[in-house]
Predict the 3D structure of the following.
Amino acid sequence: MAGSKKISELNNITVIDVADVLPIVDISDTETKYITVQQLDDRYLNTGSDFETAWDARLATKDSDNLTEGSTNQYYTELKVTNHPQVSANSAKRHDELTIGVANGLSLDPFTQILNMDEADSVTKGVLNPTDWNTFNGKQDVLPNADTGTDGILLATDWNTFNNKLDGSPYDGLETEFPSVLENQAAPAVVTGLQFNANARAVMMMFSIEVDATVNQWEYATYIAINKGGSWEMSQASLVGDTTGIFITISGSGQVEYTSPPITGFNSAKFKYRYFTLTV
């Protein structure tokens, strides 16, 4: 080639691979193959030679849309990332985007996937600040389950044992409402939760009866009962107000019951009761 020089005669040989960019340059196997663009420009370009024409043509094909993919240092694509061995090997640890069901004070940034919880106040669920912590800390330890020697909370089985049960103690029973009194109960109907056990010897009960019907009625009645060692006997001790026709009875096992007549224009009826007991 006219006017060309051997690569080994040039200084500052560092930058580009002449064999790749300028295949028309003479390169021997023992000569260095790298040369700066400036040196190429100074020594070979603007000469009007075939070399200049070949240089321009070669560069024209090296734009960003025409770069051949290599086997290493590949360009980024979603498929390449997904298929990368370090990603596919950990595919079990990957998950869909997080969402929150019932927030309960939590908030989630959909872009950063960062969870956050604000401080709680009178209307907002959240975390306690130090002042709140100092207010509540140490106020009440967790209560243990109650037993024969420990004060505490009742287990569900204990509650079922003691709820509305009468153990024959001489204490005043709590006022209790029975809201589902029915009319026309010829056969005794159970007063749920009101049953005396064998430890109760004598009982006095007070009933306040209210009837909502064509003619509204209000009755107060007292009843006394005795446990006769295997059977019960009861009678009405007093009655004040209207005569509703609703009577309180007791079964041989100590279960309190009631009977009622047909009532004109009946809508509903209820009664409240209290009791005193004497033990065996």
Summary: Helices lie at 18-21, 37-43, 50-60, 78-83, 85-88, 130-136, 156-162. The chain is about 15% helix and 30% strand. Residues 50-60 form the longest helix (11 residues).
